[in-house]
């Protein structure tokens, strides 16, 4: 069937606007004004985004299956102890789905690209909160249970998700209406220095990750004596942490394609590896959380903070609402100009070469 369908063309780096450029990726680019149909068809041809999409789209269904299993096999409606796990698994479904959609439809236009990745950043911030909620409920070491840090841990994590989403969105274009407007004329100053935008993006996601993992880092690396929760789950936590730092390394360094530009355009570049190892790390994180949940349940129910709607689903809903508000604020100038700019952007349909700023 696909052999009867004309697949979209692919282009080299010199044939697409700079905003679509990826570091050390020379070929395999899709048309910068692709239709939604073209974007979907590109899933079935080899471009430099194909594996980026599939490496997150397929795991979405795996985590959805895990979520459905928990809902069907546990008494989630009356057992509040399962609610943190539900929030975490929902975030594990949302972030790869948002990522795969962003990579799929980001070539519909320059504006669409920015908005797609705004949603991607919001989904990642939700995942960081899902991790924090489960760490507060199941992972925090015995010594810290009911401490002041434990009591303020979730509220601070919610604030971090807001900061994460805002800073990540800011890293693309700057402040809406101040550093970019409906014509995108007054551009973000980092337009000529994309490394600064990349640094801001790394910072945006490193800060909530490091904060969320304070209880786990203390439990695994610093705690001595009684109350350190030294159990059989710790090797799973060690594996997850190692994979998390590996994914951060890949994202920051653009290896291996930086060593041989053009050699890894379609298969094996850093963003694909970042997706793969990130998903594997999330799997080990999920396994560790579930094991801690089962192993420590009797003790935590007796001594830990009560698990309520407010510190689980309520916190997640608040975070989603705030992140969507931030995404709307950053997207508004782009959405408002979509109709006005349509005639100018269509000029690139036949001549994809265009000037623009690079954002990864």
TrEMBL record:
Keywords: Membrane, Metal-binding, Transmembrane, Transmembrane helix, Zinc
Membrane association type: Multi-pass membrane protein
Residues holding Zn(2+): 103, 271, 275
One term under GO cellular component: membrane
Positions of transmembrane segments: 81-98, 118-140, 152-178, 199-218, 238-255, 300-330
Cell compartments where the protein resides: Membrane
Domain of life: Eukaryota
Family the UniProt entry places it in: Belongs to the ADIPOR family.
Protein name per the record: Progestin and adipoQ receptor family member 5
Name of the coding gene: LOC110526779
